[in-house]
């Protein structure tokens, strides 16, 4: 059974009122003066998984993780437009706005309060050191996501509305990255299993249960991710922090993977997996067709046999058929689960285009492979970062001679492939991939340093299935694997795959600092600062 998370509002604690009657005249007796920081930290953890603590866990995944990233990266495909702008390179205001608006008002707001109250002058000053430093790590993760999506964003003046600053300035994306690396370095180094408030931290931390070693590994793995993301833009700084990350200790196995555990209740809009909820067909959800690009990459060279397929083919897809939802029960009714028959839908096509391609009126449900329903259960754990990614990044760093990586690029690549193929038992026990199956794949498709970067990039692309934010970021950074852009008549990018999210319309209209500090031109094809390919 997956752990049921219950963030009870009754955990809010109120401070006793001042007894001085004159002083009380200036105090709102209904105001909350002190909030349980355990509650805020747990809410922040829940928030980085679909922003679930804000009360609509599917919104950001439906609009952006899936609607832009999953389609643009050609893992998903659809004949529709609107809420799936990444397929045909169109514009959707909610897709642009969701990460910006929800990240600032959800996890970053909660984290800001934890840092404020455990800092100088706070009501918990000097206490909860591990919670404070874990919050800094979560904060770095959230800001890195915003920089990767938008470029320049509010940072130094963000979440300071209580001080009367309602229109924060925009900070340079590179400067933010530099500070995030420093924050991760300091926070990871300050984590201490002997902290006097460790028991309280462990109670609030429903991911690692207060395991300081795992939090350090998560922090240094983030550091490795950020450093490699800027490796084409600032090679010297990247090398410094790759070295720091490896010296500090990155993830060592799939046991270190950062999953946010989720549950079917008590609230479907808070506790359930937002990716799963975004695909619910009875709720008007996103289409669940997989892209031809993805299915072709997973199928072997010999179309007549599954022996040379990627073992993840029938993990990523449940086959051709129908996804059914009854209450909290999500099932797949397969009409064809033969691996050799799996077929992806081409990207950027209308239904008339598919009919022309297939030479008949196409029944999409009877023709194209769907996402595996076993990955879409409402209590599915939400992946934030995994060990396989860490190995692939080390393989890339070795090729680029960045940061003094030990071992060979081939060794790190093969460890990454093994971890990537064997990580899905967390989702369902039936997804077990044997060591022998991994070895067979590596024999059929051996690693070569001559093509190493493309192989690493392709495996990163596959490894970030469901975590399409990261798949999109790595593709933009490496321009690999080689994707063929679509050129639907309604596209607004000149037939180029989008490489950035424009700012929300509300921010453009309200914050005068965007004009001087934001990315310009503010469109889908202006690259963020680290995208140098």
Helix content: 40-55%
* Percentage of residues in strands: 5-15%
| Total beta strand runs | 7
| Computed Rg | 23 Å
Terminal CA distance reads 45 Å
Succession of helices and strands: HHHHHHHEEHHHHEHHHEEHEEHHHHHHH
Low-confidence stretches: 1-32
Write down the overall mean pLDDT: 92
The description of the largest β-sheet is: 3 strands, antiparallel
Q: Major sheet: order of its strands? A: 5-4-6
Shape annotation: globular
The SS-based structural class is: mainly alpha
**How many H/I helices?**
22
Report on this structure.
The protein has 533 residues and is mainly α. Helices cover 44% and strands 6% of the residues. It contains 22 helices and seven strands. The chain has a three-stranded antiparallel sheet with strand order 5-4-6. A hairpin with a 2-residue loop joins β4 and β5. α7 runs parallel beside α10, α8 packs parallel to α11 and α10 packs across α16. The longest helix has 22 residues. It is globular. The N terminus is likely disordered.
Which SSEs are present, and which pair or pack?
Blueprint: H1 21-24, H2 37-47, H3 59-72, H4 85-88, H5 93-105, H6 107-118, H7 129-150, E1 153-154, E2 170-171, H8 173-190, H9 198-204, H10 212-229, H11 235-248, E3 258-260, H12 274-278, H13 292-298, H14 313-316, E4 317-326, E5 329-336, H15 351-358, E6 369-371, E7 382-385, H16 387-400, H17 409-422, H18 435-444, H19 452-463, H20 468-478, H21 505-510, H22 513-517
Antiparallel strand pairs: 1-2, 3-7, 4-5, 4-6
């Amino acid at each position: 059974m997956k752990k049921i998370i219950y963030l009870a509002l009754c955990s809010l604690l109120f401070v006793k009122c001042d007894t001085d009657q004159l002083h009380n005249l200036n105090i709102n007796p209904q105001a909350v003066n002190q909030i349980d920081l355990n509650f805020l930290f747990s809410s922040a953890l829940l928030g980085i998984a679909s922003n679930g603590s804000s009360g609509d866990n599917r919104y950001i995944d439906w609009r952006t993780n899936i609607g832009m990233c999953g389609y643009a990266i050609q893992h998903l495909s659809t004949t529709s437009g609107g809420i799936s702008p990444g397929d045909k390179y169109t514009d959707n205001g909610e897709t642009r706005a969701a990460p910006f608006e929800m990240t600032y008002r959800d996890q970053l707001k909660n984290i800001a309060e934890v840092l404020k109250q455990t800092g100088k002058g706070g009501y918990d000053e000097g206490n909860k050191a591990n919670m404070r430093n874990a919050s800094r790590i979560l904060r770095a993760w959230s800001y890195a996501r915003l920089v990767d999506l938008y470029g320049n964003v509010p940072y130094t003046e963000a979440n300071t509305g209580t001080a009367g600053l309602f229109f924060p300035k925009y900070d340079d994306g590179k400067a933010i990255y530099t500070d995030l690396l420093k924050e991760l370095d300091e926070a990871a180094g300050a984590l201490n299993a002997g902290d006097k408030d460790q028991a309280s931290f462990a109670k609030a931390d429903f991911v690692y249960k207060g395991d300081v070693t795992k939090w350090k590994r998560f922090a240094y793995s983030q550091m490795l991710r950020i450093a490699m993301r800027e490796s084409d833009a600032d090679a010297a700084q990247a090398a410094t922090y790759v070295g720091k990350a490896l010296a500090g200790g990155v993830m060592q196995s799939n046991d270190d993977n950062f999953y946010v555990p989720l549950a079917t209740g008590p609230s479907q809009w808070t506790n359930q997996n937002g990716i799963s909820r975004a695909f619910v067909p009875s709720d008007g959800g996103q289409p669940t067709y997989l892209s031809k690009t993805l299915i072709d990459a997973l199928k072997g060279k010999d179309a007549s046999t599954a022996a040379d397929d990627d073992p993840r083919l029938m993990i990523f897809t449940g086959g051709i058929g129908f996804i059914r939802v009854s209450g909290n029960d999500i099932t797949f009714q397969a009409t064809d689960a033969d691996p050799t028959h799996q077929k992806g839908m081409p990207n950027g096509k209308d239904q008339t285009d598919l009919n022309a391609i297939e030479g008949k009126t196409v029944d999409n449900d009877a023709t194209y492979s769907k996402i595996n329903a076993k990955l879409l259960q409402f209590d599915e754990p939400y992946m934030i970062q995994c060990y396989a990614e860490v190995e692939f990044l080390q393989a890339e760093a070795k090729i680029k001679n960045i940061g003094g990586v030990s071992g060979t690029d081939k060794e790190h690549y093969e460890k990454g492939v093994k971890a990537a193929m064997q990580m899905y038992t967390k989702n369902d026990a039936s997804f077990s991939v044997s060591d022998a199956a991994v070895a067979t794949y590596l024999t059929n498709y051996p690693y070569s340093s001559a093509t190493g970067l493309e192989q690493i990039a392709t495996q990163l692309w596959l490894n970030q299935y469901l975590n399409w934010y990261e798949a999109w970021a790595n593709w933009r950074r490496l321009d690999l694997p080689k994707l063929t852009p679509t050129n639907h008549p309604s596209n607004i990018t000149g037939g180029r795959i989008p490489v950035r999210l424009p700012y929300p319309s509300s921010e453009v209209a309200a914050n005068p600092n965007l004009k001087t500090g934001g990315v310009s031109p503010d469109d889908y094809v202006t690259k963020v600062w680290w995208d140098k390919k």
